[in-house]
Amino acid sequence: MDEKLAALVEAMPRLLDGISVTVQLTVLGGLAAFALSVALGLAATHPSKAARIPARIIIEFFRGTSLVVQLFWLFYVMPLLGVDMHPLVVGVLALGLNYGAYGAEVVRGSINSVATGQWEATTALSMGSFQRMRRVIFPQAWALMIPSLNNLLIHLMKGTAIVSFITIADFTYHLDQLKRVTDTVFSYGVIGLLSYFVIALILTFIMNALERRAKRRLGQGITLKSVLSPAPATATPGGGA
Amino acid sequence: MIEFRDIEKSYGDHLVLHELNFSVAKGDRVTLIGPSGSGKTTILRLVMTLEEATDGYIFIDGQPLTHEERGGKRVARSKKDQKDIRKRIGMVFQQFNLFPNMSVLENIIEAPVHVLGQSKAEATTRAMELLEKVGLADKAEQHPTSLSGGQQQRVAIARALALDPEILLLDEVTSALDPEIVGEVLGILRNIAETTDITMLIVTHEMQFARDVSNRVLMFDGGKIVEEAPPSVMFSDPKHQRTKDFLHAVLGDAEGTIGTH
Amino acid sequence: MISITTALDWNWDTTWDVLPTLLSTFLKVTLLVTVLSTLIAALLGLVIAMTLRLAPKPIAVTVKWIANFIRMTPIVVQLLFAYYAFLSLDGITIGILIFGIHYSTYMSEVYRAGIDAVPQGQWEATTALSMSTRRTWTAVIIPQALRATIPALGNYAVSMFKDTPFLLVIGVVEMVNAGLIFGGNTYRYIEPLTLVGIIFLLASYPTSLLIGRLEKRLAFNT
Questions:
Q1: Fewer CB under 10 Å: which end of chain B, C or N?
Q2: What keywords is this UniProt entry annotated with (chain B) (predicted)?
Q3: What confidence tens digit (pLDDT) does each residue in C48-58 have?
C-alpha cells in the first residue's frame, strides 16, 4: 500500500493536470452545448417552418450520429478539408454539438410545458414574441429544464473520458499512466472512478442550487432532500453516456 | 365598439359558434350566459385574438380585428395591425395566469413598461393606485404564489386595468375561487363598473352579479344567441323555454328568477 | 451531391471497399452488444428497482448509492477497469456486461417511475384481496408498471447503441474502430468515418421514431 501511495504522490501533479483538462472540457463543452441547446430549442418551438425545419434536421443529425463518430470525424476529416483545430477545440466542439442537440430537445420540451394560461396572458397584455419569451416563458421553462440539463451535463462529463483517443491528456489518460506503476483496481477503480464521482456530485450540487434559485423565483418551494439527492429528478431517456 | 359579423367557429367537425351577429356599444356591460359548451368563452377568446374565427369578421370601433374583407376575400390582417388593436383590450382569466417569475408589482408594470413604453416610475405609481383600488397595496413586493386565489384574481384585475383598456373581457373570473371569497372579487368589479366607462364583456355563472353590473344579457345555446334582454327582464321574465330551463337549473329556485336589490 | 463529394475528395472505390467490413462489424459487434446489454440492463434494472422498494432500508440505501456511483462515472473508465481487472474475459464480453450494468442503473429509474405511477388504489386492492407480496408484484404491479416503461427502455437501448463506440478503448473492433483501422492502413478517413455516422443515423433515427409512436399509442390507451 505504501508503494501505491508513494506512486500516487509522485503522479499527483500530472493527475491534477488531467483533472483540470477534464473539468475544462466539461465546463467549456457544457457552455457550448447550452448555447446550442437554447438556440436550437428556440428555433424548434418557433411558429415559422423556416426556423423549425433546419433546427429539427440539425438536432436529429447530431443526436443520431453518435458522439464518438463526431469526435473522430472532426479530428481526422476536418484537417483534410483544410480546417486544423487544436484537439481541445475538437473535443469542446464535438461535446457541444452532440449534447447541444440533446439539450435542444430539453429546451423545446420545457418551453412547450409552460402552462397555456401563461402564453394567453402575454397575448392579453399585448406582449411581443421576444418580450414574451425573454420575460415570461423562458424564466419559467428554465426552472423546468435544469434537472434534465444536469443529467446531460453528467453525460457530457462522462463523455469527456474518450478524448485521450484524440491525443488529449485528460484525467483518464493519466490514470493509464498511474496503472502502469500501481495496479488496475487502485488507478481506475479507487482513484479514477471515485474522482469522477466527486466531480459529478459537485456538478449536481451546483445545478441543484441553480434549480433551487430558479424555483424560488417562481415562488415554489424545494426540499433539502431533493437538493442533496444525486439521483436524476426525471429520467431523460435518449442521453448518451 | 365591438361588432361580430357572421362569425363561425368550429373545431374540426364540431361547430361552436354559428352565424353569430351582434354588437356591443361603447360603455355596454354585456353578460353572456348559457350552458357550458355553448360558446360563450370562445367569444371572449376570439376578441382577445387567443383564437381565430373560422369565418366572419370582428370589428373594434369599425376596424377589423384579425381578418378583413379585401376584394371579396377574407384575408388576415398583419400581426402589427392586430397588435395595435389588441392593446385596447384587456382580459381577466378564470385561472388568473399571473406570471410566477415576477412579483405582484412586476406583473402589473410589465405591459405598461414593455408594451406601452411608459417609464418604470410612471407605471409603478399607476400600479400602486390600482393595487390600492383592489385592496392589495401592501402585497406589491410579494410573490403571486404566496397570495390566496381571491388575492391573485384581484392582482390580475389590476394587471388588466394597467393597460387602460377600452374593453375588458371577464372570463368566469370567480369560477376557480372558493365560494366565500367570490364576493371580494365581484365587489371590486362592481366598483370598476360604477366608476369607469370601460366596455365589458362578461362570462359568469354569478347571476346576481350579472344582474347588478350588466345592462344587457345574452343567452347562448348551441353556438347561437337564443335570447337577449336587459337583466331585469331576462332574470324575471325570460321568454324562451331554453332560457327558463337554464336559469331554473343554475338558480335552483321554483321560478327560475332572482330578486332585485 | 456531386459537388460535395468532390470537395470532400470522396472516393467511391474506397467506399465499396470499406462498407462490407463496417456492415459486418455492425451486425457482429454493435448490434450483438446492444441487444445482449439491453437484456441485462432491463432485467438488472428491474431487480434494482424492486430492491430499492422492498429491501430493508440499509440495503436499499447501499444499492441506491452503488447505482448512483455507476451512473455518474464514465463508462469508458468502467470498461478499462473491468477489462484489466478480469483479464480472462474478452473485450466483447466485458463490453456486454459493463454496458448492461451501466444502463441498468438508468433503467431502474424508469421502472421506479413506472412503479410509482401505479395508482395507490391498486395496492389497496391487493391488500383487500389478501394477495401475497409475490402475486401483488407479478400479477398486478409489474404488468402495469412495465407498459408505461417500454418506450423509455427503448430510448435507453438506442442511446446504448450510440455509445457502443466507447468499446474501442478496450480494443474491441466495433464500427468506429473498424473505420479507424481502415483509415490507418489506407490513409482514407473520410469514407469510413462518414459511413459509420450514416449507419448510426439510419439505424437510430427510425427506431426513435417508432418508439415515439409507440409512446403516443400507449399514452392513449391508458
A1: C
A2: Amino-acid transport, ATP-binding, Cell membrane, Membrane, Nucleotide-binding, Transport
A3: 999 999 899 99
